[in-house]
Amino acid sequence: MRIPAHSVCTAIRDDIVSGVYERGSRLTEELLARRYGVSRVPVREALRTLESEGFVVTRRHAGACVAEPTAREAADLLEMRMLLEPLGAARAAQRRTEAHLKVLRGLVRLGQERARRGEGEDLRSLGGWFHETLAQASGSPGLIALLTQLRHKVAWMYAVEQPARPVDSWAERGAIVDAVARGDAERARALTAQHAERAAGAHRLRRPDPPGRRTAPGPRVSTSQHGVNIAGARH
To answer: Which segments of the chain are extended strands (E)?
Structure first.
């Protein structure tokens, strides 16, 4: 069975975002094919997609390499996310389904419970799911794709500190859901803009290792090889 290129793309992107491959390191088709248990054809297609997304660059005499975004590029991406998330919330107020509301309310309830218990790692995941679901509720494929790409890139470029009062952060998300449920697009937009602005203050730019600390020209990868999880892969 031929492994879909988008599944390979998701696996490589996830490893770039999590730091498995250092910025500036080479991404050879042979190594990637071996690591993910696929042929070189889907790897080649995946690298083209990742280059169009800005995660990979092609360099003369080196081939595909992990991109090395500048601080200005990172700031631009964070600002774009802050502008687009309120638009997504406004669209969600107009287009959400009952299924979207059920998931959003469930995530807020779980987030509030975890915040009271101080379970920080769970809160990070729940926050990501919340904003992904809110974007999905916008009913706009183009906007969803942009927000998804921005979320991946911001996670790659920034470390995010937990808010000092996570209960308040989840109360803000609850208010956004209430506005979406009422169909109040302008309030949903305003509340999301306020939430995004406060959240941006917790982002700290990741500093990549200086070139002198890189011990090999190839990518730093974990020692275990793994195949692509098609069922769990998301693009």
So the answer is: 56-59, 63-66, 158-160, 203-205
Please identify which residue in the block is written with the tokens 């889907």: 42
Decide: helix, strand or coil at residue 212.
Answer: helix
pLDDT on residue 161: 84
Q: Residue 95's pLDDT is what?
A: 97
CA distance 41 to 38: 8
For the cut 90, the answer to whether the pLDDT of residue 142 exceeds it is yes
Q: What is the mean pLDDT of the chain?
A: 87
What tokens appear for 67 in the block?
């991109």
Secondary structure class of 70 (helix, strand, coil): coil
Residues sharing a CB contact under 8 Å with residue 38, sequence separation 6 or more, in sequence order: 3, 8, 227, 228
Report the pLDDT value the prediction gives residue 215, as an integer from 0 to 100.
38
In the chain, what is the straight-line distance between the N-terminal and C-terminal CA atoms, in Å? 19
Q: What is the pLDDT of residues 157-191, one digit of tens each?
A: 998 887 778 899 999 999 999 999 999 999 999 99
89 with 188: CB under 8 angstroms?
A: yes
Q: Which helix (H) or strand (E) holds 192?
A: helix 185-200
Closest CA relative to residue 180, chosen from 82, 90, 111: 90
Is the distance from CB of 20 to CB of 223 less than 8 angstroms? no
Q: Give the whole-angstrom CA distance, residue 143 versus residue 104.
A: 18
- The structure tokens 């287009």 sit at 95
Residues 205/74, Cβ–Cβ less than 8 Å: yes
From the list 35, 31, 38, 29, the residue with the least C-alpha distance to 7 is: 38
Angle between helices 120-136 and 141-157 (to 10 degrees): 150
